[in-house]
Design goal:
Radius of gyration: 21 Å
Strand order of the largest sheet: 3-2-1-4-13-14-15
Largest sheet: 7 strands, mixed
Structural class: alpha/beta
CATH architecture of the largest domain: Alpha-Beta Barrel
Bound molecules: guanine, fe (iii) ion
CATH superfamily of the largest domain: Metal-dependent hydrolases
Shape: globular
Length: 435
């Protein structure tokens, strides 16, 4: 059994995180109790100044793109063709893919990410390898073999039937009932034939699997889609192939009118908002408040490598920035009428909010019976006395504050920073090294 003590991040009643001092007990893979009491020096991990958070969930990222972060100055399509697709070709070499997968997993752990909805490449072997590696570490989530059978470089394109067979195989090996599952991942309408998208819809339905793709990221992409599909809207194109639904995650969703919003809302589809990627590629600013008021469910994702922040805390901050750009800062974010989320809402989004939207009932919350997927965070600032402690933490955020990342009850990342370097944490308990 392991005990963690500190300020526990909990979902409040209105979609905002709150904190309460207490002790979390872990036995095996699960949280067995949460007691709200003063933290003493007898805990294994944490201290009164620590934040104990559910592990962060990143609902849109590309594993083969972590080495390509920062290719600045191009809009989506040239960036894809000149930078990203060549990088993804390297995953055809399974040794390189395995080495990179390992590096990427460690980077995720180092920023507190314990749950992912990730894209691999069109390589079946590299995808299976990534599924096995992430599963062995204990990540929650999905990884999908990217499906592309047209308008794609020869080394990445695959025949339609081969993709359908291989993705079916990934779904059999990593079923949707598992903690880490395969996802159906038609990359986006422009790299898929009609037949492939139709088969993707059938596979997702047959396996009750998560389907993930990209939607309405740039105006130019939307125009190309209209052009290829006889003037149909992007949402109607996906709807026509049976790709809308409550297990469907659409990355970006920036350029959507009210009709598209209401189709997405009625189908229960999710939009993975990726604010860092959107500003990096100059794709536009997604109007989160508008989507939410139309009833569309929103998750948050880093979209590495268009996104340049691995840390979901920083992506949460970018979500606030993006909303601020749209609102023109008209209302203070503490005004309940404001469309700008505050830090408490952003903390909620990257933990409970993302888990709930995905229907993951075993993670995203610190409560008895939940999987012990947690971060122990020891800030070196006097955050508890700040006017808004969660805002202080989010805006002053430093990845080095993460001391442990715990997946399924196991410490999978342990900071090498000494806590004695951290004067504010001087009140912490001893015995920090025990998993
Ligand atoms: N649209 C199709 N593929 C991609 C991708 O890899 N990244 C982003 N940001 N958009 C895409
Ligand atoms: Fe993406």
């Amino acid at each position: 059994m392991t005990t963690l003590g500190g300020q526990i991040l909990l979902p409040g009643p209105t979609g905002q995180a709150v904190i309460r001092e207490g002790i979390v007990k872990i036995d095996g893979e699960q949280i067995i109790s949460v007691d709200f009491e003063d933290v003493t020096c007898s805990v294994d991990l944490g201290c009164p100044n620590a934040l104990i958070s559910p592990g962060f969930i990143d609902t849109h990222l590309h594993l083969p793109q972590f080495d390509s972060i920062g290719a600045f100055g191009m809009p989506l399509m040239p960036w894809l063709n000149q930078v990203i697709l060549p990088a993804e070709q390297r995953w055809n070499d399974h040794r390189f893919a395995a080495e990179m997968t390992d590096r990427v997993a460690r980077q995720c752990l180092g920023v507190g990410t314990t749950g992912v909805c990730a894209y691999a490449t069109t390589s079946y072997d590299a995808t299976i390898q990534a599924l096995k590696a992430f599963d062995a570490i204990g990540f929650r989530g999905v990884i999908g073999q990217a499906m592309m059978d047209r308008d794609t470089p020869p080394d990445l394109i695959r025949p339609t039937d081969q993709l359908v067979d291989e993705v079916n195989e990934t779904l059999l090996k990593f079923p949707s009932s598992g903690r880490l599952a395969a996802a159906v991942t038609p990359r986006f309408a422009l790299s898929c034939s009609d037949g492939l998208m139709m088969q993707a819809g059938k596979l997702a339905e047959a396996h009750q699997a998560i389907m993930q793709t990209h939607l309405a990221e740039t105006e130019a992409e939307c125009a190309e889609v209209r052009n290829r599909f006889g003037g149909k809207s992007y949402v109607d194109v996906y709807a026509g192939f049976g790709l809308l639904g409550p297990r469907s995650i659409f990355g970006h969703g920036i350029h959507l009118g009210p009709e598209c919003q209401s189709k997405l809302a009625r189908s229960g589809s999710l939009i993975a908002h990726c604010p860092t990627a959107n500003s990096f590629l100059g794709s536009g600013t997604m109007n989160r408040a508008s989507h939410l008021s139309a009833g569309v469910k929103i998750t948050l994702g880093s979209d590495i490598g268009a996104g340049y922040e691995r840390s979901m805390v920083r992506v949460g901050r970018a979500m606030i920035d993006a909303a601020m750009r749209i609102a023109g800062n008209a209302l203070s974010s503490t005004d309940p009428r404001s469309s700008v989320p505050n830090a408490a809402e952003a903390w909620y989004q990257i933990t409970t909010g993302n888990a709930d939207a995905l229907g993951w009932t075993d993670v995203g919350r610190i409560a008895s019976g939940m999987s012990a997927d947690l971060c122990v965070i020891e800030p070196d600032i006097p955050w508890r006395s700040a006017q808004d402690p969660l805002s202080a933490l989010m805006f002053a955020w430093d990845d080095r504050w993460i001391r442990q990342t715990i997946l399924r009850g196991q410490v999978q990342y342990q900071s090498t920073q000494s806590s004695s370097m951290n004067p504010v944490a001087a009140t912490r308990s001893d015995g920090a090294s025990r998993p």
